[in-house]
Each structure stands twice: as structure tokens, then as C-alpha cells.
Amino acid sequence: MHFSSPNLQSAMLFMAACLTIPTFAADCGQSGNCFSSGATRDNMYAARQEVCGTNRWKKAGHYRVPGKTGYLRWTGVDTQQTCWDAYDNIINQCKLGDSGVHTHSGQYQYNGVYYNAVDCE
């Protein structure tokens, strides 16, 4: 294929590059009220730090937010960066830790590994 316009060539290369970048989209649970001592957004980010910032992410596991009903669960190993990104996207896209009626759980799957987060049960 021959493109005569340098701008068109650049645009085509940019579009091709965009199609190869993985996207991180979380699947969010049902919306509702949390009637227990649910984890705040800060609690959820602290849990993410504990899991992804230490060696915990290197094998399947479960981490409960101290003093709260929230938790993180993951089924295997991908990369540390995937751990950071997956939980960041779950917390943000599913609005975990927010007050009021919202979703209280989310999951993300990448390379056969499931990342799950719940801010209250």
C-alpha cells in the first residue's frame, strides 16, 4: 500500500500503535448501599500498596483491609505493574471506597490472572 501524504502515513502508524496498546477496563459489581464498616478509598489504595508494593503480588493470595470489611484477591502472577494498574483501575472505575450508593466490587482479568477488589461485604 502506498500513501503519498506524510500526515496520512503518520496517522495510520498512530492508529496501528493505539490498537496494540492493552486497555484496562474493570468489570464492576452491582450498585447498592454499604451497611457495614466498608473500606474508604484511602483504605483501598493502602491495600493496593501492601499487595503490589511488596512481594505479595508474586503468588495468588488474599489481603483484607485492616479493621474493615474490604479486601483484595488475586489468582496468580503476571507483573508487578499489572498489579498496580489493575487495582488502580478497579478502584477508580468502580468508585470503590466512595460513600453512598455505588458499586462495591470490581474485577479485572489479564493473562489468565483475576484481580478482585471489594470495599464492603
From TrEMBL:
Signal peptide annotation: 1-25
UniProt xrefs under Pfam families: LDL
InterPro entries (UniProt xref): LDL
Alphabetized UniProt keyword annotations: Signal
Identification of the protein by name: Uncharacterized protein
